[in-house]
Amino acid sequence: MDYKVRDLSLAHEGGLKIEWAERHMPVLMLLRRKYRDEKPFRNLRIGAVLHVTKETAVLIKAFKDAGADEVLLAGSNPLSTQDDVAASLVEYGIRVYAWRGQTPEEYYWCLRKIAESQPDIVLDDGADLHALLHSEYPGLAERIVGGTEETTTGVNRLIAMEKEGVLKYPVVAVNNAYTKHMFDNRYGTGQSTFDGILRATNILVAGKVVVVAGYGWVGKGIALRARGLGARRVIVTEVDPIRALEAVHDGFEVMKMIEAAPIGDVFITATGNKAVIRGEHFQLMKDGALLANAGHFNVEVWIQDLEKLSVRKRLIRSNVEEYELRDGRRIYLLAEGRLVNLAAAEGHPSEVMDMSFANQFIAAKYLVENKHLLKPAVLNPPLEVDKMVARLKLESMGISIDELTPEQEEYLKSWKAGT
């Protein structure tokens, strides 16, 4: 079997991590057991570009158990792969092309291995695989049954492709499921971002001034956790007036980045855009400022400007680069500006990825079942699926909720009842 990982001898350790994740992902494990006999993915090849973590492994194994002829996996970030997990998946019969610390050239070599396998279903995190298939393999793209997309950044790219009329297959925007973005993006990223920052630096958050760029679901989660960890001030920067107003009403300070730059101790970007923190901001920052990114690509902290302003840099500890500016101030960049929660830690907790990956599995099954009915477009997951995932999650937590009586259902459907 063709594959490329760092070290197969790590497989045992990776298997233990996967086992731990399986114990904390009851919804996905339920789906895995349910479809082990039905084999809905029989005679299909699945190509995935996802963060190679223990949680992703549970999803990939579910596809294999559900009958997929072949499952291929590449990492969606050069620094997010857990090498022991990758090795364990190879032993399970998965073609893995992923190792931590890839160069950009190696990263795209791995993606091309996925594309050239001619997958029927593609799963992506950031839309690099979707973009590669359309730009370099248009013939292959035309025969693909469909795909899924896990991130806000990736969904935005796919919507742009649809608007330009170049999208060649239907893609379910898994990120748009409520049981994904309201929990994964907010609670998952909120916690795991600080997990990464603390593992890299071991700083005390209490008493610090934390600046959060962006107040989407990810930014909300980060700001919430910063306050919970005792940050003295939590400042939000935004370009959207509605989100800025929401941040104000949630009790956070809101100002421009140029105003926050000389105040902040820790800066965390979560916008999905480029050059959010750039030269004009670096020039105002205090000595010792920390920069971290929680967005998908390493473009939010504009490293080119930081390089130009610096007289020297050095790796002062794992995942912490020190940039010394001309006036002697030092600014610290975490995890090369890449996703700090995955590059410096383990990513989201298994409990929250349970819902996200249950949606991935169900979305792929939906594409297979409706392959002759769906046209190339970006599709939102059905609300019924969202509610099913939420209900299963509640049940796994031992929580039950009320149900509408027939009279209540009828009342909500009727327009006749008044005051």
TrEMBL record:
One of its GO terms (cellular component) is cytosol. It is found in: Cytoplasm. CDD domains: SAHH. Its cofactor is NAD(+). It catalyses: S-adenosyl-L-homocysteine + H2O = L-homocysteine + adenosine. One of its GO terms (molecular function) is adenosylhomocysteinase activity. NAD(+) binds at residues 151-153, 185, 214-221, 238, 273, 294-296, 341, 348. InterPro entries: Adenosylhomocyst_ase-like_sf, Adenosylhomocysteinase-like, Ado_hCys_hydrolase_NAD-bd, NAD(P)-bd_dom_sf, S-Ado-L-homoCys_hydrolase_CS. Binds 1 NAD(+) per subunit. Residues 185-347 form the S-adenosyl-L-homocysteine hydrolase NAD binding domain. May play a key role in the regulation of the intracellular concentration of adenosylhomocysteine. PANTHER family: ADENOSYLHOMOCYSTEINASE. This is Adenosylhomocysteinase. The lineage of its organism: Archaea, Thermoproteota, Thermoprotei, Desulfurococcales, Desulfurococcaceae.
